[in-house]
Amino acid sequence: DTTAENLMLDMRKSGKIFPAKALKRIGISLLHMHEHGIVHCDFGTHNIGKFGSRWKLLGVGGSVAIGDPTDPDRGFYHPPEAVVVESKRAPLGKKAISASVISVPAQTTYDIWAYGVVAYEAIAGLPLSPYACRGKRAMSQVEVGKIGRWDENSLKKALKHIDEANEVARSLIRMLLHYDPEKRVNSMRDVLEHPFFSGGADERKSRRSGESYTSGARGGSPRKQSSSRMTRHAAPSQLHSRSKLTGTSSTSSLKSARLETDRSFKKENIANGSYGLHSGEGKSFIAVNGGEGLALSKGG
C-alpha cells in the first residue's frame, strides 16, 4: 500500500512514468465528486492511495459543497486564484515577496488545477513545484509566490519539460493549468474526453510489468495506447446510492457505460458545513476498483 506521491518518486528513480490509465481512473473519482456538487479542495498525489489493485482518493473529510468557502490552511495544490502575492520593501533596498493562500468560493476548477499538477508530474516526470524528499512538498513563500504569479509564460516554461512531439499531452496540460479559472476547463468530464485518455497520448512500456505508461516527458519512446474502460456517473438525484460503474467495452465513451446502484450510502450534512457521502463502515475515500467499480464514502 502506498500513495501516488511515493510511486512517482520511485518511478522517477527507475526511469518509469506514472500509468495513464491510473490517471484516468483517479479523474473518474474526481468527476463523481463534482457531479454530486462536492469539491475535494485537497486533491494531490499525497491524497491518492494505491491499495493492492485499487486506487483510492483519500482526504475526502474536508471536502466542501460547490460555492462554499475553501479552507486556506488545507491542501497543497492551490490554484493561482487562491494565492495573493505582495511585494514588500526589505533592508538594503531589496524587495521581499509575501505570498499567502486565501479562501475562495469552491469551484470545480479548484480541483481541476490540482489534477493538472498531478497530471503534469505524471507526464513530465518531475513535479510542478519541486520537493526535496518523500512526503515533503514545497510550501515556501517562494514556491507559493510562483503559483500566485502564474501566467502564460509560466505555463510555457513548464511545457518545455514535455516533448514537443507529444502535442496531445501538452494540450491536456494547457487546459488544466490555465492561469485564469474562467478559461480553465471546468468539467472533469471534458478532461476525461480529451484525446490523451482515448488513445492520443504517446506511451511506453514498463520493462518490469509490461503495463502501459504515459510518455509525455522528453526522451520517451512512443507506443500505441491501449484503450481502457470509460464510465458514466450517477446524476445528483442518485446521491443516496452507492454507485458501481461498469464499462461496456474498450471503445465505449463516458456516455455509453452502464450504471448499477445499491442503497447502502446516504448524503449527510457534516457538522463543519462540508458535504459528502457517509457509510456505516466509517471509510473516507473514493475507490476505483480496476476501472470497473467506484465507491464514494465520507468518514464520520
TrEMBL record:
Residues 201-210, 257-269 have a biased composition (Basic and acidic residues). GO terms for molecular function: ATP binding; protein serine/threonine kinase activity. Residues 196-283 are annotated as: Disordered. Residues 1-197 form the Protein kinase domain. Signal peptide: none annotated. Residues 244-256 have a biased composition (Low complexity). GO terms for biological process: mitotic DNA damage checkpoint signaling. It comes from the Eukaryota. GO terms for cellular component: cytoplasm; nucleus. It holds the Pfam family Pkinase. Coiled coil: none annotated. This is Protein kinase domain-containing protein. It comes from Helicotheca tamesis.
